[in-house]
Amino acid sequence: MFPEALSRLIAEFKKLPSVGMKSAMRYAYCVLEMSDEEAEDFADSILEVRKKIHICPLCGDYTEGEVCERCQTADKSTILVVGEPKDILAIEKLGTYDGLYHALHGLLDFRKGIGADKIRIKELLSRLDGVKEVIIATNPDISGEMTAHYIAGLIKPMGIKVTRLAHGIPMGSEIEYADEMTLSHALSDRKEL
Amino acid sequence: MFPEALSRLIAEFKKLPSVGMKSAMRYAYCVLEMSDEEAEDFADSILEVRKKIHICPLCGDYTEGEVCERCQTADKSTILVVGEPKDILAIEKLGTYDGLYHALHGLLDFRKGIGADKIRIKELLSRLDGVKEVIIATNPDISGEMTAHYIAGLIKPMGIKVTRLAHGIPMGSEIEYADEMTLSHALSDRKEL
Lengths: 193, 193
What we know:
2 copies of one chain form a homodimer.
Chain A: H1 4-14, H2 21-33, H3 36-52, E1 54-55, E2 62-63, H4 69-73, E3 75-82, H5 85-94, E4 99-103, H6 121-125, E5 133-136, H7 142-155, E6 161-164, H8 180-188
Parallel strand pairs in A: 3-4, 3-5, 5-6
Antiparallel strand pairs in A: 1-2
């Protein structure tokens, strides 16, 4: 139905997260309607991001420099641990945390054979000099919980405080509709008013 | 907040239709997580589509060949006229039309200075040899209606039948919620049962 090169571009767009056939087709037609210069800029920006951006050897976030700026300037007494670099962004947006980050690039998942050696836990352990608190902010699912407890088990014996983000009823939602796990966390982690 | 190359890629994704900041960021992170080969394939598919695909000199649809296959094999007694190549796709999907198409690559819009010489009307007139019916399928808005009437005014005097897609209440909708223009079309174009 489509010329081959167009089919191929549509297939490439479909690999992006949550992009179905309809969006992929719209994006591909948009590329066809671009000027030559615009299309070259687009293709070039994909190659450029791969060439220039790499993973900071300390925190694991994406950076253009050798070591990322945050690792050089942040308060070094706290490390906040996340699964993926994109999770750092969500915390950064708050604008209230000024410590270090550490992206594990994955979470433990023994069913999939992802053990501690497959994610950046060794790198985390090598950064603990002078650190007073490790805040674990992995996703609240089985892998995230397992990873949080695994890391806590390694770090707490070193005398470093290990905390994790509070789980509970999300703001603006209704208790009636909260799932059992969330409600159970909210109850056991209750705070005095 | 983002390294420069990443900001640039996000900005490129935001140029695609209906892509906001959040989707653009997810797409960009997806590119960062690709293998080198996948990223190169993606960039290459953008350049390839521009290199290989061009506009068929007859119908104006996108094609890889010199003249598109449809212009060579379709029933040549009918031409269906659309605004953009992507509109051809919607009709093709029905699988019931086997005539020629003609993409105008634009619609008349005198406020924006888009006159008859800016869209592929001349090319349409040069294709009418042996054509018995011209079906106009421009969008049902001011520009689409104006273009439809302009083309009809040129072609009807040649003794060629000019029709346009029926406007009316869309299937599955409710008369109560139809807008005035649609309802007025549906009434005046009523069919005998």
